[in-house]
Design goal:
301 residues, alpha/beta, Rossmann fold, 5 strands
Length: 301
């Protein structure tokens, strides 16, 4: 049985890090995937593994897609980073090879699609965001108190435009980044329709062919194990450092408002995220395969 599994699940098949021609990691993190937990860890890894963490790229925008000019600017800039750099940005996948540049090591994270939306909903209503608004726009009229106190369940039940997730929609009532797959599909127009089957298939192919690891901090130990073993130059000692500082890392960027979502509301919303869930489960299954390949190899040695 073990030999049969190993025939399908092997490190050689699942570790595409060796195909990278640029000794640079591009970590294009989607919003609301708890990637903030990785920031202090990466800074510690920088000191231990002699790597360079780069947070600010040349394109400082949170737009859902990049124009071709923006893509070229980012591609050229990232290609000139020194060896051993890890570039972290909220940006979609970039086709380095398609534009004539060397291929870097791509990594990312995913999270349960509805949990992302709920987190985003309450993040926009946090006291931190409120304080930032007051500092940036002193004297400007704020949203009413009712908006800040609104629950996600009430928002969905009332049919509020903020909590409608319209299939194949391209324009949105608010810029909520509900398309987790968009970060992996790219900046083409076909990637934008929400919950699109075609966009999801492109995103899955990108993950399979372009990403060394796509993890999830819902499975922290598995994710860090795979990062460590598949990209040791950058992530060696990740599990040790995370365990050493796990309490401070988990408390980073925590929102004190802990919502309870009504089960029927969660199910209502879930029906609009069918393809997004397909993509999420695809990424998790691939991560588990990568982890299983490590266990099988260890058992054979």
């Amino acid at each position: 049985m073990q030999g049969h599994l190993l025939g399908r699940v092997t490190l050689m098949k699942l570790n595409i890090t060796r195909f990278a021609a640029l000794e640079v990691v591009v970590f294009n993190r989607p919003t609301r995937v708890d990637s903030e937990q990785m920031m202090p860890l990466l800074r510690q890894l920088a000191a231990m593994n002699d790597i360079n963490v780069v947070l600010n790229g040349p394109v400082r925008t949170m737009n859902r897609t990049r124009t071709e000019k923006e893509q070229l600017t980012e591609l050229e800039w990232a290609s000139e980073l020194e060896k051993g750099s890890i570039y972290i940005a909220h940006s979609n996948w970039l086709d380095f090879e398609g534009f004539g540049y060397k291929k870097p090591i791509y990594v990312s994270l995913v999270r349960d699609p509805i949990d992302r939306m709920v987190t985003d909903f309450y993040k926009r209503r946090s006291w931190v965001k409120r304080a930032i608004f007051r500092r940036m726009y002193p004297g400007r009229r704020e949203r009413p108190e009712e908006w800040y106190n609104l629950s996600f369940s009430e928002c969905v039940r009332s049919g509020d435009p903020e909590c409608r997730f319209v299939q194949y929609s391209v324009s949105d009532y608010i810029q909520d980044f509900k398309r987790q797959s968009l970060y992996f599909c790219g900046s083409e127009a076909d990637c934008l329709p929400f919950n699109s089957h075609n966009a999801i298939q492109v995103a899955k192919r990108r993950v399979e062919k372009e990403y060394a690891v796509v993890g999830t901090l819902e499975e922290t130990n598995i994710t860090l194990t795979v990062f460590e073993k598949y990209i040791p130059r950058f992530f060696n000692h990740a599990r040790f450092l995370y365990k050493l500082n796990s309490k401070s890392i988990r408390n980073r960027n925590r929102n004190n408002r802990k919502p309870q979502i009504d089960p029927d509301v969660k199910e209502m919303v879930r029906r609009n995220f069918t393809n997004e869930y397909e993509f999420y489960y695809f990424c998790k299954q691939r991560l588990y395969k990568q982890y299983l390949a490590l266990q099988l190899e260890n058992n054979l040695n």
